[in-house]
Input
Amino acid sequence: MFKGTIDRGHLECVAEPPMYPPPYPNISILDHPLLESFRWDTTDQIILICRERSAEANGQLVALRDWSIERAEDFCAFGQWPLDYQTISINCHSGTVTFSAGHGGVAPLYLKVSGERIDLSWSIADFYSGMTLADVDTDRTGLRLVGTLPYATTTMFHGVFMLTERASLCISRTGAVETKYPPPAPYFIPTPLVDEADVAAAAV
Output
């Protein structure tokens, strides 16, 4: 849903910036009737949200542009939206950028981290032209070629990450990437059958 560039070396948060277009970061949001976006700016932080519109908004929490930054942070942190969404939170003082995704995985976001620059795209192919042989992760590429690449934030290229659903990526000013995954989903464990159990009849 997001596409563009964040240059943390030139981040400038201002008290009352124009809503569109933003001065920093240089990010475009997919213009689509099924999406809606929100942006909050303060002297300390920038928060952007892009999410799927809900056809049935009754009873659902709706983000408002006049929220305080604290309210916007709470909205992002708790994921109080049943459809898919992506958020970007930028701390202007530390230069830390946090990307978070909802549970849908509708449009995975790829991030290329190089120094103080973060490039974003919905397609990893957008980064191919700038890659060299040294950028290729041979282990990951080998797994991709045999069709067993695990579903994770790492990709076939060093420095290129994929934001998976329900996860977040925190990128420090030094370029260090910290991944936070959600807790594992609950699952059922088989239990011993009682003596009189008829599995076939139960299946029918």
Remarks:
- The mean pLDDT is 79.
- The first helix runs from residue 69 to 78.
- Helices lie at 69-78, 138-145, 199-203.
- The first strand starts at residue 2 and ends at 7.
